[in-house]
Amino acid sequence: MFHIKIPPFKQIEPTFDKVSDELIPKKFKYWRWRMFIGMYLGYTIFYFTRKNISPALPLISDKLDIDIIQLGILSSVFYIVYGIGKFISGLFADRANIRMFMAIGLFLASIIHLFIGFLDSLYLIVFFWGLNGAFQSMGFPPIAKGLVHWFSPKERATKWTILSSSHTAGTFGVGLLVAGIINLYNKGIVGWEAVFYIPGIIGCITAIFLFVTLRDRPVSLGLPEIEDFKKDRPMVELSENTKSHWEILKKYIFTNKYIWILSFANMFIYIIRFGTLDWATIFLYDVKGIDQVSVAIFWTLMPLAGIPGGIIAGYLADRFWNGRCAPINVIYLILLTCSILGFYFYSGPNNIFITGIALLLIGFLIDGPQNLISGVQTSRVTVKEAISAACGMTGFFGYVGATFSGVGLAYITTVFGWFGMYLTCAISAVFCIILVLMTWKKEKGDALEEGLRN
Fold it and tell me: Cα–Cα distance between 182 and 160 in angstroms, integer?
């Protein structure tokens, strides 16, 4: 009888069936490409079931008769649950099977989308959208683990920023998808619920693809550790007397001051990211008077520009600063501050070109610091045995900022107007610059140490 063996959820132990030395390069090349493509596509589709709600906010507001504060509550509940879930998922992902962790998370998140659009109660929608946040939190921690186990330190910055562009590709892709759905809705071809169930169907299919494509660590396939294969040791390695998972977390996460600095910096980055991304549709539609379809298309410009923005930031960090991230982050953040204020003052139906350019610049400039702070820099100041937990912690603080971008920015907008909202985003960029500067000497010392070691 046909039988499918379901792999365990727990991290797979190293196999005794080792790959022969002559086959190791070929096997590594094959599995590294397969893992990278699987993780990239998987996280792209995670965003199809996460950001599909953003370009549809004006439509949802009209259909359910909910105001800006209620929209803010919907966003904040998601971000609270997602932020807490990302930290918890990070703690578990370091000891879990990459393949199962990611595939199950996407499948459960997608199932919710098959029926949530048919709910007519705001409370039920908030509940299930929050539950979606819990399952969404299972997306990135296994990717962080996959990156440090399948790619060595000297190549990780480039690979990390490229793979991190998957969330931007997903946001861009779902923006186009939702714009098409809204267009079909306006023609009476589909119901507005298609904004949810179509991404849900795509997510279920992709979850099956992840189950077929992904695997766990190299050692689970009989391959050596990536550092041994590439002859490239990490800058921070696990000490011999640190054995238990709690000891690893305590030494390399909770008492690591640079993890805390990067966490707070990530919090401000997420205030900017979601403040400018989530509220741009309402701002352009209600305040600037741009039509819904054009708003949905404009909304896609930010994630579209973010793809090269993040990758170029990683390349410049490697090319001109020996992998140090602080210099390029400061440059990006200064330019981002100017772009945010420029968008507020000069966007509108009479300045369509300037509106598009401003959104492109914001998208381009936000992805660099986000990817470097929460991922690359974090991986440089901790051990790979705790990387999921480290990214979970920076991610948690990021979604504290994202939560504030929901209800917090909605309240600021109600009291102080839209200028208050965009000024808050600009001030957040300034605070982030200060925190990034606090890591300047640490990174400079690490770069010098690496140069002497090489």
Answer: 34
Q: Whole-prediction pTM value?
A: 0.77
SS3 96: strand
- Residue of 54, 18, 382, 367 whose CA lies nearest to 196: 54
Q: Say whether 214 sits in a helix, a strand or coil.
A: coil
Amino acid at 212: V
- The closest of 190, 216, 84 to 138, measured between CA atoms, is 84
In three-state secondary structure terms, 15 is coil
Which of 134, 143, 77 lies closest to 108, judged by CA? 134
* Overall average pLDDT of the 337-348 stretch: 84
d(CA 117, CA 292): 19
Give me the phi and psi of 10, to 5 degrees please.
-75, 150
Q: How far is CA 11 from CA 15, 58, 208, 359, in A?
A: 12, 43, 19, 42
Phi, psi of 428 (to 5 degrees): -60, -40
Is residue 398 within 8 A of residue 406, CB to CB? The reply is: no
Quick: pLDDT tens for 222-273.
999 888 888 766 655 666 665 677 788 888 888 888 899 999 999 999 999 8
Average pLDDT (423-448) is: 83
Q: Which residues contact 224 (CB under 8 A, 6 or more apart)?
A: 24, 218
